[in-house]
Amino acid sequence: MAAVLRNALEPWHVLVVVLVVVVLFGSKKLPDTARALGKSVRILKSEAKALRTDDPASPADNPR
């Protein structure tokens, strides 16, 4: 199974995925889509960080 995973993402696979994305979204919508995706990732990271800092049940806050 490791051999299958090791060879799963060859350069031509990446090329096919890129072509499919361009065909689906169109070259004019790609910058807007990438911008929205980046913004969503930043929001997700900031929310995850806020949850970690606000979590009262954190093991670091409750030493035994």
3D architecture notes:
Keywords: Cell membrane, Membrane, Protein transport, Translocation, Transmembrane, Transmembrane helix, Transport. It holds the Pfam family TatA_B_E. It is a single-pass membrane protein. The structure is a single chain. The protein has 64 residues and is mainly alpha-helical. It has a domain at 27-54. It has helices at 2-6, 11-25, 30-54. The protein is elongated, with a radius of gyration of 20 Å.
Features:
3 helices; 64 residues; elongated; mainly alpha
List the helices and strands and how they pair.
Elements: H1 2-6, H2 11-25, H3 30-54
Function: Part of the twin-arginine translocation (Tat) system that transports large folded proteins containing a characteristic twin-arginine motif in their signal peptide across membranes. TatA could form the protein-conducting channel of the Tat system.
Main location: membrane
Membrane topology: Single-pass membrane protein
What general outline do the C-alpha atoms trace? Answer: elongated
Main structural class: mainly alpha
Instruction: Give the H and E element order.
Output: HHH
Q: Output the number of helix runs.
A: 3
Membrane topology: Single-pass membrane protein
Keywords: Cell membrane, Membrane, Protein transport, Translocation, Transmembrane, Transmembrane helix, Transport
Family: Belongs to the TatA/E family.
Pfam families: TatA_B_E
